[in-house]
C-alpha cells in the first residue's frame, strides 16, 4: 500500500516533515494503537507535520494496519 503523504490536505503545502517509527506507546506513554503491536513490542507510526499550517498527522505502519481487522479493540466505522 502506498500512502500519499503530500500535499498537506489542509493547505496543500508540500513543505512537510516526517519522523520515522515513533513507538505508539504503552507503559508510561499513552497507547495510541492498542492491540496492533507484536508481543512485547508496541505498534509504530510515522508522524507528519506541515511546516506551513501545523497540521499533524499520524500514519500507523503497514504491519499495524494489517492487524486492525482481527483486533477486538478496533471497530470499523
Ligand atoms: Zn498544511
3D architecture notes:
Helix content is 8%, strand content 26%. With 77 residues, the protein is mostly beta strands. It has a domain at 16-67. The protein has a three-stranded antiparallel β-sheet with strand order 1-2-3. It starts with 15 loop residues before the first strand and ends in a 10-residue tail after the last helix. The model has no long low-confidence stretch (mean pLDDT 83). Bound molecules: zinc ion (ZN). The site of zinc ion has 8 residues, from loops. Zinc ion is lined by residues 8, 10-11, 13, 50, 52-53, 55.
Short description:
The protein is mainly beta and 77 residues long. The chain contains one helix and three strands. The protein has a domain at 16-67.
Key features of this structure:
three-stranded antiparallel sheet, binds zinc ion, 1 helix, 77 residues, mainly beta
> Which secondary-structure class do the elements indicate?
mainly beta
Enumerate the distinct ligands. zinc ion
Largest sheet strand order: 1-2-3
Give me the Rg, rounded: 14 Å
The helix count comes to 1
Broad shape: elongated
* SSE series: EEEH
Biggest sheet details: 3 strands, antiparallel
Low-confidence stretches: none
Question: What is the number of strand segments?
Answer: 3
| Proportion of beta-strand residues | 25-35%
Distance between the termini: 20 Å
- Write down the overall mean pLDDT: 83
Helix content: under 10%
